[in-house]
Amino acid sequence: MRCETARDLICVGIDGDLSATRTQELRDHVAGCADCRNFAREMNALREDLRQYAGLLAPPTLRADLSAALDAAERDQLPFQRRPIVRQAMAMAAVCLLSVFGTWTFLREAPPADARAEVLTAHIRSLLQDSPIQIASSDSHTVRPWFNGRVEFAPVVRDLTADGFPLIGGRLDYLAGRRVAALVYKRRLHVVNVFIWPTPKEAHDTVQTIQTDGYSLLTWTRGGLRFWAVSDLNPMELAELRALL
Amino acid sequence: MTIGWNKTPPGRIETDMRLRTRFEQLALPHLDAAYTLAFWLVRSRADAQDIVQEAYLRALRAFDTVHGPDIKPWLLTIVRNVAYRFLSNKRRGNNVIPIEDAFLPRNGDASDGSMPASDDPSPEILLIDAEQSSLALAALASLPPLHREVLVLREVQDMSYADIAQTLGAPLGTVMSRLSRARAELRARYAIIVEKEGRDAV
Q1: What is the full DSSP assignment across A47-94?
Q2: Chain A residue numbers touching B158 (CB-CB < 8 A)
């Protein structure tokens, strides 16, 4: 075998792809040829160098950049409703709706403290309208029936003109997640809104006085009804009204 | 590099989030191999990173066409294609730099006049860490790309003939003969470099 052939075979034969006879011929040649022995040795050393040192590790920046690039490509590629940002937004919207619903159901039987903001708002809003009342009458026999079919309960309606609290009229309002009766009284120049709605029978009547933002609020329960009286009137006179109702 | 994207077809059944996860599971383990192949094809670390990134994005887009747990040959084919496209673009655009100038000898600047003129784009310097092996790696770097890649896939990645054939898109017989020639060429280049080193050292 010539050295040239031997070297070709050495290059191929490394992977063991030579036939048995060829392999034996090569071995015989190499045994007797120093040059080819060196060649084989060098060849194996070179391959070993490549195996050990030519392999590279992907730099950390590549992993990070690749992750970002895959994210960007995915955003471009996804149908709109599947995009992560949209799914996030939808999830957040769902959470918002749930929390609103949860809060709404909670407020239906809310302790007085939670209704105060709504009550005050409704009071102020009623004063901003052209008229705070929908039925103008100081006659309880007119106002009380007017609420039939408008609220599912029978509010307490009294004309207290003789006591300095003339009944101006009534209004349908919406508070604490339900339709409520609003009675509008006047004390001198002060307007008093009395909101009434049914409440589960409680062990004892609760009374609470609140003063906020220059307004007075008084709340109590009686006979299965929750009352809220709100006005810029002072709390003492508000308490007088309560005693009269 | 910018990549153009087609919109996802409307009839896609699998959700894209799961596809992305599955892609990462199957493709990320081969990141080092992809980077190694890209590097030895373009002989630039920065370019190799760009190429791997583009290759992986293309692979993600084509991911629903591939089967089986081992996607390495398919993935490396994409890396290879992107790398060769890069090389041909570079060749068309820039001055052609002789292969010998793509690396510097271990002991400093080349004094034999083979360095390109100063106004040419400077060749990428191969940063070779291991001293003893630097000549072997320099020999590898000096080979033509077809020889380089088959040596990297076989000697470095230890891929089977069948997998290499799939990656190169070539018949098995071609792979074997190319590998044999590449090994011989590697040794020849190595001998030249050793001789050059010996000359310069004196």
Answers
A1: HHHHHHHS--PPPHHHHHHHHHHHHHHHHHHS-GGGSHHHHHHHHHHH
A2: 51
